[in-house]
Amino acid sequence: MKKTLLFLVLLLSQLSFAQKGKEKILVTDMTKIKQVANVSIAPDGKKAIYVLRTNENNETDKLDFDYRTHLWLTDFQTAKQLTRGAESVGGATWSADSKQIAFARNVKGKYQIFLMPLDGGEAFQLTDFKYGANNPQWSPDGTKILFSVNVTFSDILKDSLINPSKKLPSWSIEKAGFKSNDFLKIDKKVKANPNGSIEEIRAYLEKDVEDKKAKVITRLNFQGESTTEPEIRFNLLFVIDAKEGAKPVQLTKGFWSYNGGSWSADSKKIYASSGRDSLQHPDRELNSSIVVLNADGSGIKQIIAEKGISYNSATPSPDGKLLIATMSKTDWLGFNQIILANADGSNKTMVTFDRAANNFEWTDDSKFVYFTASSNGGVPVYKLDIQTKKIEKLSDYDTGISSFDISKERIVFAKTEVKNPSELYTADLLMKNAVKLSTHNDEWLQNKALSFPEKRVYKNSKGQSVEYWIMKPANFEAGKKYPLLLNMHGGPTAMWGPGEASMWHEFQYFCSQGYGLVYANPRGSGGYGKDFQFSNYQDWGNGPTEDVLAATSDAAKASWVDTSRQVITGGSYAGYLTAWIISHDHRFKAAFAQRGVYELSTFMGEGNAWRLTPNYFGGYPWENNIKPILERESPYTYVDKIKTPFLIKHGENDLRTGVIQSEMMYKSLKIMGKEVEYVRMPGGTHELSRTGNVRQKIDRMLRIYEFFERYIGLK
C-alpha cells in the first residue's frame, strides 16, 4: 500500500510540474537536452548499456558547444556513467558472458574498437586499423567481434593488404574515352611530367588529384552532404578475436559494399546486405540483396535477391531457423515492408503491415519479433507473432520509442514524450507497469511551462484523414489574443507528432514565446501507410497545401487566435511548401523557409537528393511530357506572386538541396523589390537544425523569432 501511495505521489508531482510550471523554455535550453540511445540488455538480463548524447561547453569558444556521446550502465535500479572525456563513443555490444562490452571510440580522427571489462578493469584498444573500425558486433559464442571498415576507391586500388590480387572493379568506372578499366593499372615506372608523353602527363594529372589540386568526377552520385565526393566509398566487413593483440581478418573484398552485418546464432555465419548486380556501377545499382558468408569470409552467396527490390536489415532468429528483414521496391520511395524467410533464404513471405518497420529484436524462444514503426504522430513498439503473422501494437501514438532491447522478462527503451524529450524506461514484455530508470532531463525541466498538443483530424478532398495538432501558448491566459505559427515538416515523407523527438524544443520554445502553434501530417507524410505516403505523386504543391491550410484555418477559429498575426515556416520539402503557399495564399504576415527546393529542374543538378525529381514526378526535365509538370510544381514559377515578407536560410555546405535553390529565389525577389532577406550559414549542412553546430542552431531559432516579431510583434 505504501508503494502504491508513493507511486501516486510521484505521478501527481510529475503531472504538476508538467502542467503548472511557469518558467519559459529558453532558446539555450536546447543545450540542456540529453538524449538516450543505443539501448542494449546484457545476455544475462541483469543490466543494460545505453548511450547518452549531451551538449558540452566548447573549451575555446565559450559561446559554442560540442556534442558528446558516452556510455551508461544500469542495473534497473541505478545508473552510472562508464565512459568520459572529449572523445565520443558509439553504442556498445555485449560479450556472451555479460562481463565485457565492445564499443567504437575516436582515436586520432578514426574510430577504433575498444573492449571494457565490467569488473572494474580499464578499457583497452583492440584495433589500430589505419582506415578505422566501427559497428562492433560480438559473436554469440563470445570469441570474436565483427566490425566494418569504410574505405575509398583509391584505398582498395592501391592497398595490397585489402586488395592483394590487385583486382580492378568488375563494373565500368565510366571514364569518358576509355572502354575498359585497364587505365587504372598503376605503372610505377612512369614519372609525372607536364611536358612529357601522354602517359607522363596522365601521371602528372593524377598527382594533382592526390595533392587535392583537382577533383575528377566520373560518377553519378558525386554529391555528399557537405562536399563533393568524386570517389566512391565502400563498407567492408572484418572480424577479430576478442582478445588483446589479436589481428583483424578481412571477410569481404573488392569494390562492393556490405552493410548491416549480423551473426547467426551459432556464430558460424554472417548475414549482410549488398548490391544485387556486381556488374553494375554502385551508383546505378538501386537493388540490394541479402547475402550470407562463413565466419572466415568464405562461401559468400546471395540468398534473397530480386530485380526492382532492395532487401535490408536481415536479422536471424536465435534458433537459427529464420530470418526477418525489410524489403522496399525501388520505386516505392523508401517504404520498408517486413519479410520472413528460412535461414537459407527460402520460403520468403511478406508480412501484412502498412507501416515502415525498423529495429527488429527476436525473443529468445524465436516465437516473436519486436520492432518500431513511425505511425500517427508517434513511434510505437509492435510485436509480431511468427506463427500467426499477427501484429500487436504495445505502446501509444503519443510517445516515441527511439531505441529498445528485450530480454526474457523485460523491455528497456528510450522514450520521447511531451513532458520529457528523452529518458530510459523498463516494462514487462507487454510494455505494462513501466518504470522510469533515468532522470537526465528532470532537473532543468522541473519548473518549465510546457504546452501539450491537442490532436484533431480533417477529411481532405481525396477522402483521406489528415491528423494535425494545435498547441496553445505556454502560460496561456484566457481572454488574451495570440499569434499563430504554422510549422511544417519536410521529407516529404517525414512525420511529426507528440512522439517525434526532433521538434520537441522548437515547438515548446515558440509556445513559451507566446505563439500558438499548429502542425500537420499532410498527404505524402510517412506513418500512415503506403497509399497515403505516395498520394502526393506529381502533386507536391496544391494537395499538401490544402491539408496544412485546413489545419491552420481550424486552429485560427479559436477565440484566442489573433488571425491578423499568422506566420509560417518549414524546412527542406517544407521550405518548398512555404514558398508554394505564400505564392498562392496571402494570409501570413511573414514566412521563413529553410534549406528548401524551389525549382525542380535545377534541383536535378544542385542536390544529392535529386532522385526525388524522377521518382515523384515521373521523369526528367528534358522529357517533353515531364517538363511542364516540373514547371507547374516548382514554387519558383510563381515567384512574382509572392507578397509575404520572406526570410530564406541555407547552409553553405548543404548539398542535399543546394544553395542555388535559395539564391534563385532570393535574387529574383530582390530584383522585384520584395521584402526578402537571405541568411547563409558558413559550414552548415542540410542537418543544421538537428545535428549542426549548436551556436548556429541557436542563431537559426532566434532569427525565426526575430523576423516574425518585425511583422507581428505587439508595438
Automatic annotation (TrEMBL):
<dbReference type="InterPro" id="IPR029058">
    <property type="entry name" value="AB_hydrolase_fold"/>
</dbReference>
<keyword id="KW-0645">Protease</keyword>
<dbReference type="InterPro" id="IPR011042">
    <property type="entry name" value="6-blade_b-propeller_TolB-like"/>
</dbReference>
<keyword id="KW-0378">Hydrolase</keyword>
<dbReference type="InterPro" id="IPR011659">
    <property type="entry name" value="WD40"/>
</dbReference>
<dbReference type="GO" id="GO:0016787">
    <property type="term" value="F:hydrolase activity"/>
</dbReference>
<dbReference type="Pfam" id="PF00326">
    <property type="entry name" value="Peptidase_S9"/>
</dbReference>
<feature type="domain" description="Peptidase S9 prolyl oligopeptidase catalytic">
    <location>
        <begin position="505"/>
        <end position="713"/>
    </location>
</feature>
<dbReference type="InterPro" id="IPR001375">
    <property type="entry name" value="Peptidase_S9_cat"/>
</dbReference>
<dbReference type="Pfam" id="PF07676">
    <property type="entry name" value="PD40"/>
</dbReference>
<keyword id="KW-0732">Signal</keyword>
<keyword id="KW-0720">Serine protease</keyword>
<protein>
    <submittedName>
        <fullName>S9 family peptidase</fullName>
        <ecNumber>3.4.-.-</ecNumber>
    </submittedName>
</protein>
<feature type="signal peptide">
    <location>
        <begin position="1"/>
        <end position="18"/>
    </location>
</feature>
